[in-house]
Amino acid sequence: MYDVLIVGAGPGGIFTAYELMEKNPKLKIAVFEMGHELKNRKCPIDGDKVKSCVHCKSCSIMSGFGGAGAFSDGKYNITNDFGGTLYEYIGKKAALELMEYVDKINLKYGGEGTKLYSTTGTSIKKTCMQNGLHLLDASVRHLGTDINYIVLEHLYDHLKDSVEFHFDCMVDRVEKLDDGYRIYCGEAIYEGSKCVISAGRSGSKWMEKVCKELEITTKSNRVDIGVRVELPAEIFSHLTDELYESKIVYRTSKYEDLVRTFCMNPKGAVVNENTNGIVTVNGHSYEDPAKQTNNTNFALLVAKHFSEPFKDSNGYGESIAKLSNMLGGGVIVQRFGDLVRGHRSTEKRIRESFTVPTLNAAAGDLSLVLPKRILDGIIEMIYALDKVAPGTANDDTLLYGVEVKFYNMEVEVDENLMTRHEGLYVIGDGSGITHSLSHASASGVHVARQIAM
Ligand SMILES: Cc1cc2nc3c(=O)[nH]c(=O)nc-3n(C[C@H](O)[C@H](O)[C@H](O)COP(=O)(O)OP(=O)(O)OC[C@H]3O[C@@H](n4cnc5c(N)ncnc54)[C@H](O)[C@@H]3O)c2cc1C
Q: What would you report as the CA-atom Rg of the chain, rounded to the nearest whole angstrom?
């Protein structure tokens, strides 16, 4: 019998455990994680013998200690403008305070010396506005994939003697008891007074099942679909040197859709991502100059919401990603010049491109994959960005597709992030409320403080 059962060892689960230990070290806490311990997380893709996803039973990129964020670029955004809607539940001031609190912990556990960038007072904001683009406000701590990993190592060392971790342990079912919760992991059964679920994106389908079984209301969410853009780092250097990551939003003139930049990686690399067996694209970068590349990459995404009669936003995104997997065996890459001229990119054209791709993807035609409305919006935004960063619309700018940001169904919770069942909390990306390291971590601290009170 435990005081608190935590499902998922991503940032949400880790910071729940961390804060519970800070507030009450006597609590008996167990964390159940379907992925591996941090040191055993290894994606078999080496770009040499294994070039594409081999669909491991547990995806080391998405699962294990550190969650989906373990090999991320570690961009820790302190803002209510994006990354989730935690502030709608706990208030803007409290949300920011919690993000700042987690930032301090990250610094204490290995992130010291990393740089905090800010949009405050930047002239880039004005240049963007003059060209129909809107720069969102944020402070961003760039930990980098390397330092992010070190922080996780140190946090694990700090927690492992006081918190019981069960790795490679998938929770199949959560059952409500009269005075607590019972969880089933294969043959094993564990019980606790309180249960915090932080299952992230990889646990989205499972989370839906849990909500159905426990009669917790959910509502459909959105899906973001687009491409990852890769270009020589010099083109964006005036933005990335000052802001590191700029979140820029553009309203298309044709459909009035919002297109936004997302996850900018100066001198970074484009990578594969596997969500429920579907290969999509993502990006990251290292703080260590020795590991940096000559390119910058970022996503351009268009948000799609569905309500009636079709509600399955994620299913829509999955179908588009499956189409790219069907045509390209995985991710497709195309030169911008080829796309606007209606040509498919060939391996030869990619080889001859002045922008050297950092991901080995199949040369192809994104117009056969992405819906016209989405593709038109992306092309329009590339031309808009070309005005603040000339060269963005060069023929050799590379577009990888598809990039999909899946969002979980939004789970009905109160201001304590507690469901209609006393003592059952749903936090992090699995709740549909957060979509980032900072918001997910902050939601964990918030819940831990409610429990430890
Ligand atoms: C490649 C990549 C790069 C990213 N870069 C950034 C970035 O730079 N900045 C940023 O803010 N965000 C980034 N993100 C997003 C960020 O990683 C997530 O928002 C964050 O990890 C969410 O934390 P979480 O704890 O809610 O969920 P997760 O990190 O997804 O953790 C959930 C954990 O629960 C486990 N789990 C799920 N179901 C079960 C079950 N039934 N039983 C047991 N365990 C289960 C999973 O294995 C997983 O480890 C990135 C994501 C990816 C994939």
A: 21
Of the candidates 393, 384, 124, 387, the residue with the CA atom closest to the CA atom of residue 241: 124
Q: Is the CB of 400 under 6 A from ligand 1?
A: no
Structure tokens given for 397: 């700018």
Mean pLDDT of 394-411: 93
My answer on whether omega of the bond before 309 falls inside 30° of 0, hence cis, is yes
Does 228 sit in the ligand 1 pocket, CB within 6 Å? no
Q: Is the CB of 9 under 6 A from ligand 1?
A: yes
How many other CB atoms are found less than 10 A from the CB of residue 208? 16
Considering only CA atoms, which residue is closest to atom 18 of ligand 1? 436
> How confident is the model over 218-239, as pLDDT tens digits?
987 788 999 999 999 999 999 9
Q: DSSP letters along 171-197, please?
A: --EEEEETTEEEEEETTEEEEEEEEEE
The Cα 150–Cα 440 span in angstroms is 19
The C-alpha atoms of residue 37 and residue 49 are separated, in whole angstroms, by 25
DSSP-derived letter for residue 84 is B
Q: Please tell me the residue having the least CA distance from ligand 1 atom 6.
A: 72
pLDDT tens-digit readout, 292-337: 999 999 999 998 887 777 778 888 999 999 999 999 888 999 999 9
**Cβ-contact 391, 337 below 8 angstroms:** no
* pLDDT score of 56 more than 90: no
Distance set, CA 302 to CA 60, 176, 219, 255, 367 (Å):
28, 39, 20, 11, 15
The answer to whether residues 313 and 221 touch, using CB atoms and an 8 Å cutoff, is yes
Helices 92-106 and 437-452: crossing angle in degrees, nearest 10, is 100
Give the helix/strand (H/E) hosting 299.
Answer: strand 295-305
What confidence tens digit (pLDDT) does each residue in 90-121 have?
A: 999 999 999 999 999 999 999 999 999 999 99
List alpha helices for 308-436, DSSP H: 313-328, 336-341, 347-352, 372-388
Establish whether residue 32 lines the binding site of ligand 1, counting it when its CB lies within 6 angstroms of any ligand atom.
yes
Q: What are phi and psi of 413, to 5 degrees?
A: -135, 165
What is the CA(332)–ligand 1 centre distance, in A? 24
Is the CB–ligand 1 distance for residue 67 below 6 Å? yes
Q: How far apart are CA 369 and CA 329, in angstroms?
A: 13
Amino acid at 153: E
Please tell me the distance from the alpha carbon of residue 47 to that of residue 38, in angstroms, as a whole number.
22
Cβ 183 under 6 angstroms from ligand 1: no
The structure tokens listed for 362 are 């199949």
Q: How far apart are CA 115 and CA 379, in angstroms?
A: 33
